[in-house]
TrEMBL record:
<feature type="domain" description="RRM">
    <location>
        <begin position="6"/>
        <end position="82"/>
    </location>
</feature>
<dbReference type="InterPro" id="IPR035979">
    <property type="entry name" value="RBD_domain_sf"/>
</dbReference>
<keyword id="KW-0694">RNA-binding</keyword>
<dbReference type="InterPro" id="IPR012677">
    <property type="entry name" value="Nucleotide-bd_a/b_plait_sf"/>
</dbReference>
<dbReference type="InterPro" id="IPR000504">
    <property type="entry name" value="RRM_dom"/>
</dbReference>
<dbReference type="Pfam" id="PF00076">
    <property type="entry name" value="RRM_1"/>
</dbReference>
<dbReference type="GO" id="GO:0003723">
    <property type="term" value="F:RNA binding"/>
</dbReference>
<protein>
    <recommendedName>
        <fullName>RRM domain-containing protein</fullName>
    </recommendedName>
</protein>
Length: 132
């Protein structure tokens, strides 16, 4: 399985959100391998990210977080690669938990996206299976 198969695109991220915030947010899905954080080209004060995971189940679980809220913004979590945008620095704000919701709210969002999808992600995690 290629590296692109383990990545999700995240849109509408608040501008003050750091890479550390995103690592914390997505760590409940599984191991985060890399995050590329960039400014959006849409004129908003938002960012986009390409989040790459180490395990296929982590990517599948992260996709269940589509429409989750980070610092008041509903983010889009989609499969695939982000478009070319201008990179930004890691920012000067270092808040670890101030920009994201608690692990409990992340889990509630995952649960609301479907009991069946969550069971499938858990099964993949336990058995190390992947979809073909």
């Amino acid at each position: 399985m290629g590296a692109m198969d383990l990545s999700v695109q995240v849109l509408n991220i608040p501008s003050k959100t750091t890479q550390e915030d995103l690592i914390t947010f997505f760590s409940y899905c599984g191991s985060v391998d890399e995050i590329q954080l960039k400014r959006s080209n849409n004129g908003n004060q938002t960012q986009e990210a390409l989040v790459t995971f180490r395990q296929p189940y982590a990517r599948q679980t992260a996709l269940l977080l589509n429409d989750a809220t980070i610092s008041g913004n509903r983010v889009r979590v989609l499969p695939g690669e982000i478009s070319e945008t201008s990179p930004i620095s890691n920012g000067s704000l270092k808040g670890k938990h101030g920009f994201i919701h608690s692990p409990q709210s992340v889990l509630k969002t995952i649960a609301s996206k479907g009991y069946e999808a969550m069971n499938k992600a858990k099964e993949l995690a336990v058995w190390g299976l992947t979809e073909n």
